Amino acid sequence: MGVVIIDGSTVRAFVGEEEQFKKSVDERFAALDLNRDGVLSRSELRKAFESMRLIETHFGVDVATPPQELTRLYDSIFERFDCDGSGTVDLEEFRSEMRKIMLAIADGLGSCPIQMALEDDNSSLLKQAADLEAAKLGGGGGGGEAKS
Ligand SMILES: [Ca+2]
């Protein structure tokens, strides 16, 4: 369990690193595809959001939300991901929706840094965003100043 400080620009910079972001999202996808059929089912995606804890922290929904409410919420998330209505989420759909979600989080955070307690979970995208920024700051003279 660690604490990181992130704001909108941290998250946006992470999403902006095309290759790194894609790699992170792809790894996430692979980890979530429990039965390894190359697509995410409704329950696989639900597990993903439960583990990312985005619902509790960023969708304005109380943690004590009744289970049927949560199910409805997760269903609506699934339908957002499943653009073509195929009943499963493929890698392309996952990538594009994760990008939108991360950017929405970035907008939500704005320039107001928040402290986040993160589980010891290296697959957390927000933690990776914070790590990326830390690596840049600590990298020392590598150029590549953040542009705004
Ligand atoms: Ca699957």
TrEMBL record:
Keywords: Calcium
Database matches in PANTHER family: CALCIUM-BINDING EF-HAND FAMILY PROTEIN (PTHR34574:SF5), CALCIUM-BINDING EF-HAND FAMILY PROTEIN-RELATED (PTHR34574)
Name this protein carries in UniProt: EF-hand domain-containing protein
Domain EF-hand residues, every copy: 20-55, 69-104
Entry-linked Pfam families: EF-hand_7
Lineage of producing organism: Eukaryota, Viridiplantae, Streptophyta, Embryophyta, Tracheophyta
SUPFAM superfamilies (alphabetical): EF-hand
